[in-house]
Amino acid sequence: MLDTILVAFRTTLVTLALTGVLYPLAVTGAAQLLFPRRANGSLVADERGQVVGSELIGQGFASPGYFHPRPSAAGDKGYDATASGGSNLGPTSQKLRDRAAADLEQLRADNPDAPGPAPVELITTSASGLDPHLSPAAAMWQVPRVAKERSVAPERVRALVEQQVEGRDLGVLGEPRVNVLQLNLALDRQFGRVATGG
């Protein structure tokens, strides 16, 4: 019996050392060596070199001079990276319908010159609540508001959005998209910061 316990104990220690220490260290080391930026969170810095976020995690922008991301249900106030997740409200939920209707009304009020109906992604939250991307169409829909707030010709803002469009991964996976944080940083670089902040 004692021999069996000792064999089990040694097996446990070896397994713990291999899978709990050596394997994680090897994977972390390889990631740091091969993909250091991604392994460290794909952090994004502004023109002063100050880290302002991650290109993988959406964040809120409230100022009319910036492009707004999808709404977020992550955390009490949204965009909380420690509380990633959806609202879990179903399509028959009155609370969800009320929130969507209020968001739509606010979008229309904030974007009176926007062409056509509001894109659905500016009304609905993503599954994580932290989606950092918008479709090019949703970004273009916001151009009149951003251009007006920054006193810039809409054509110049549209051109900037087009420059920021990321294509499909490997040419076939996913859809074209715009990273909202990167787009807003590009706005600041090209047209200067908005005095009210974002």
Please tag this protein with its features.
three-stranded antiparallel sheet; two-stranded antiparallel ribbon; 7% strand; mainly alpha; 198 residues; 5 strands
Q: Overview of this structure, please?
A:
This protein has helices spanning 2-34, 36-39, 94-110, 136-141, 143-150, 154-164, 180-191; strands at 43-45, 51-54, 133-134, 165-166, 177-179. With 198 residues, it is mainly alpha-helical. β1 and β2 (51-54) form a beta hairpin. The longest helix is centred in the N-terminal third of the chain and has 33 residues, at 2-34. The mean pLDDT is 90.
Shape: elongated
Residues in helix, %: 40-55%
The average pLDDT is 90
Uncertain stretches of 5 or more adjacent residues: none
- Number of DSSP E strands: 5
How far apart lie the N and C ends?
68 Å
| Structural class determined from secondary elements | mainly alpha
Count of helical regions? 7
Strand order of the largest sheet: 3-5-4
Quick description:
α5 packs across α6 and α6 crosses α7 (180-191). The protein is mainly α. It has helices at 2-34, 36-39, 94-110, 136-141, 143-150, 154-164, 180-191; strands spanning 43-45, 51-54, 133-134, 165-166, 177-179.
Question: What's the SSE blueprint?
Answer:
Blueprint: H1 2-34, H2 36-39, E1 43-45, E2 51-54, H3 94-110, E3 133-134, H4 136-141, H5 143-150, H6 154-164, E4 165-166, E5 177-179, H7 180-191
